[in-house]
User: What shape does this take?
Amino acid sequence: MSHANLLSKTLAARQNPSFQFQWSKTLDRATQHLSAEKEDIVLLDLELPGYQGFDAYLHLRRQYPTHPVVVLINSEQKMSGTEAVMQGAQDYLVKGQYDDELVGRVLNYAVERKRSEERLNQLSFYDPLTYLPNRILFIDRLRQAMMAANRYHQHVALLFLDIDRFRRINETLGYSVGDELLKAVAGRLTGNLYETDTITRIGSDEFVILLPNVVKMTHAVKVANKILGAFRLPFSIQGRELFMTCSMGISFFPNDGDDVEILLKNADKAMSLAKLRGRNNFQLYSSTMNAKTLERLELENHLRYAIERGELELFYQPQIDLKTGKMVGMEALLRWFHPNRGRLSPSEFLPLAEETGLILPIGEWVLETACRQTREWLEQGFPELRVAVNISDLQFREENFAWNVDRILKKTGLHPSSLELELTENIMMDKEGFSDASLDALKSTGVKLAIDDFGTGYSSLGTLKRFPVHTVKIDQSFVKEITTNPDDAAIANAIISMAHSLRLEVVAEGIELESQADFFKSHHCDKVQGYLFSKPLAVAEFSSLLEKQLAH
Assistant: This one.
């Protein structure tokens, strides 16, 4: 303890002592203290009882690899001091050769050097945005988990997670909001996992979760469901509430691969399938996904050239005025004639178009084609018609969307009053998806705005007063059992009454039975559309329908 007392007196003599000491006579007592307290630095005498030469340092380093250490050596042990530094010690002091300036400098330098090492370690092995382990550290932990799983006959699970429609956050709210959202997601994921689990951000909005020591595969399913549940709560970002969902794919070691990259790739494939199945869900990897993934890539490749190859076509479904029984408009509906698979419905390719961004050129083609065709029918002497065109949320969020609509109207010569843009209810209710200015810009063009699939989202008709909306379309899910389900009937009647009180038109879609049409007529709904009146028709067939109406 003489050296300990001497060091204490040396540092106490400094004008501004910055260190407080606690001494232990044995290494065992010292490690007990270290387990209970977080020390800034350890001064280690290499001549502690029971240890020879370099052994004391190696023993301490094995138990506490992150603690900064300065070793105390005799003047004959300088080689041991140098070796300790080479093995990770921050510095060494020669016993008896103390002065306040030297000791203070060594200790301060040791602490600062350790902090620098930690900062370098953070940069080398952690994501600078989320502070999660980066790919390098994650893969190392995954390999360790795989070796342990082999040894103890267990499994390892990988959850590949992608934030649904994250790109729109960056595009509409800016990258600073996007970065804050990523950090919030990282925090929420961490809060729903065990300390033994590892999360990494492997891409812009992609995370991978490592679950080691998995005895039952159902554990991974429970974790996935827990994460989906955690995403149901909004994220509070810079004073905004953002509702997000995620899609996940799960692969298992060793069932789905015995190699790191294969496991990651298979979890990624399962995640892609989750997106194709509507997002906000998870899928387990299976070998059949290889064929599905290849099919998806081929479909995407064909879709990129569908416009220039003339494979896209618009069909039109009539909208009927219930008071007169005459056709007063139509909805433009997209079809794709795939070169190998034949005619595809929108549900088979539009989710892929939205995910890849191809919906933007496709949506523009649909809008221009519908406007041009409507203009041609009007020039041929058919009655005043209004064409309804569905607009995707990605289109609507484009900064120049209103300008583009105005450009297409001028290009095709269609009067704005003959065009109705159908926006989903969730787009309109998403406070961050648009600004009042963008809606006002659309209104200034003279086009009509409709809310499609009304009743399936989170809005109420009372909130529609602030929007320049002309039409509300009752979702067909309420129409199917309108004559047998009192709840559906009550909802539909309430929508009609409240919409009319706000001077809005109401359209019921999905009418297939006379009894359904009679219900909406008796409740003073304005328009209806559905297979009872006509299925969606190609241009030639729709022209014939117009001619028949003109003849009457």
Notes: The chain has a mean pLDDT of 83. The first strand starts at residue 42 and ends at 45. The chain has three domains: 2-124, 135-287, 298-551.
